[in-house]
Design goal:
With 476 residues, the protein is α/β, with parallel strands linked by helices. The protein is built from 19 helices and 15 strands. It has a six-stranded mixed beta sheet, with helices on both faces. Strands 8-5-6-7-15 form a five-stranded parallel beta sheet, sandwiched between helices. It has a two-stranded antiparallel sheet with strand order 1-2. Helix 11 links the parallel strand 9 (257-262) and strand 10 (282-289). The structure holds pyridoxal-5'-phosphate.
Length: 476
């Protein structure tokens, strides 16, 4: 499989060549030249496979430059019942992403049984092992530099810890994360993991990362890399659980199923779009946003108007508090029949602080052919959903997954099965869950003592030179 840029100006490259990169060299996003398509016969075969075998079948065509046995090992190392397990689902760990029935046509797919209790682990575990493999094959090493307000940074650290070719420098705002989030990251003692608490807000951390990346000489000398949400390796790994979820609920391969996805940067549901293009019988892809509704506006009206950071509201589902959706460009590329010239004009407008609207005909294609619909939730609606799920069904959900249920209730068609994707475990957002139910959600056993473990973290001022000095001393 060859990969190209949505903006049309990058020489085609294979999977190993694009895996470690972020943006394409022309500023676009990296996409496969085409999507493999599975026949109904093939889908029937796939429906019988376990998570690892299914991953292999789905990822292979996208990574056909890797030795099949090596890819198999990367996958088996990533998705084991030991890694994707917690006390809630002990007896179903082998399924990796078990599906729970809520009512006749409503389902919850558990994606949060990994080490950091969020769906990001599913992509990050694969990415960690794939990075290590590609780096070893090239005999290279990299230093990953990132900023986090919680979820992404910890998922990256748990996936990269102990790897020989990788060093992680993760900036976080000092004193601004929850004690649980802090403990999750800072308790890692691995020598390739460097937690750096910056005396600043999250934006200040991100500014430092940008400033380091601007210094081209420094960046090259210390081989600075990233694991951001636009990385193709993350998207490809996420396609798998749409297949797994579909097979868990569909009676036969002719049945169509809806997915409802709590969305922020559009990474998760972008994988659903690709699964549908590969032939998986998905009817509708339901985009669920919180009060930060840039995506909801786009899928309802066709207008894409990124907000400014100041306009981004802090909500009870913080991992979805985004001002623009970085992965949307991948979908709009397909929507425009892969015409780079057209796409480039739209995104140049966006990069200059503007917005764009697609025409009525394209809007119709987006909703009918591609199956996208959307809605949003408010904080009180999410709290009600958490309460309902607990008191009616005995299931704890977190505020992000609650967003999915609120939107599913608004838009579901009761003749079609709807799978809501769980994006984090309730224990991760305990305070809101306690407000809603009056009960403390269970914390997986291996994490119960985490806040008492010794912390490995360096605290620094928001100063570029201090950060650079630290990287110089600790880089591999
Ligand atoms: C990252 C995240 C999301 C948003 O996912 P996108 O891929 O950015 O759309 C939703 N919920 C949780 C808990 C997350 O960590």
């Amino acid at each position: 499989m060859q990969y190209v840029s949505t903006r049309g100006n990058m020489p085609a490259q294979n999977f190993s060549q694009i895996l470690l990169g972020g943006l394409a060299s022309d500023g676009g996003l990296i996409v496969p030249e085409s999507y493999p398509k599975f026949s109904k016969e093939k889908l029937k075969e796939l429906s019988k496979l376990n998570y690892c075998d299914l991953s292999f079948e789905i990822i292979s065509p996208f990574a056909d430059d890797l030795e099949p046995n090596d890819l198999r090992k990367i996958i088996n190392d990533s998705y084991s019942p030991q890694i994707f397990c917690n006390s809630r689902t002990a007896e179903r760990c082998g399924e990796i992403t078990p599906v729970v029935k809520i009512d006749n046509t409503l389902y919850l797919q558990e994606l949060s049984n990994g080490p950091t209790l969020a769906f990001k682990d599913l992509a990050m575990q694969f990415l960690g092992n794939a990075f290590e493999y590609v780096l070893q094959a090239k005999n290279e090493k990299i230093n990953i530099l990132g900023a986090t307000s919680g979820d992404t940074g910890s998922a990256a650290e748990y996936a990269m810890k102990g790897k020989n070719s990788l060093n992680v420098f993760m900036l976080s705002p000092a004193g601004k994360m929850s004690p649980f989030q802090r403990a999750q990251m800072y308790s890692l003692q691995d020598k390739n993991i460097h937690n750096i608490a910056v005396r600043a807000m999250f934006d200040g951390c991100q500014d430092l990362v940008k400033a380091v990346n601007k210094d081209k000489d420094f960046k090259q000398k210390y081989k600075i890399g990233a694991v951001n949400s636009i990385n193709w390796g993350r998207i490809v790994a996420q396609i798998v659980y749409y297949f797994k979820g579909y097979f868990a609920v569909a009676e036969n391969i002719d049945e169509e199923v809806d997915f409802c996805v709590p969305s922020g940067n559009f990474g998760n549901i972008c994988a659903g779009h690709i699964a549908k293009q590969m032939g998986l019988p998905i009817n509708r892809l339901i985009v669920a946003t919180n009060e930060n509704d840039v995506l909801d506006e786009f899928f309802r009206t066709g207008k894409y108007a990124p907000r400014t950071d100041e306009d981004t509201i802090q909500t009870s589902s913080p991992s979805m508090d985004i001002s623009k959706a970085s992965n949307l460009e991948r979908f709009v590329f397909d929507l425009l029949d892969r015409k780079s010239e057209k796409l480039k004009i739209l995104w140049e407008t966006v990069e200059n602080g503007g917005d764009f609207s697609i025409d009525a005909k394209t809007l119709k294609i987006m909703q009918e052919k591609y199956g996208f619909i959307s809605s949003k939730s408010t904080h009180p609606e999410r709290i009600t959903a958490i309460r309902d799920m607990y008191f009616r069904h005995g299931i704890f959900i977190d505020t992000h997954t609650a967003d999915g249920f609120v939107v599913a209730q608004k838009l579901r068609n009761s003749a079609t099965k709807t799978i809501v994707l769980e994006t984090a475990l309730a224990a991760k957002f305990e305070e809101n869950v306690r407000d809603a139910t009056g009960k403390k959600p269970p914390i997986p056993k291996h994490l119960q003592e985490i806040e008492t473990l010794p912390a490995k973290v360096r605290e620094i001022d928001a100063n570029l030179q201090t950060l650079k000095n630290y990287i110089e001393k600790n880089a591999i």
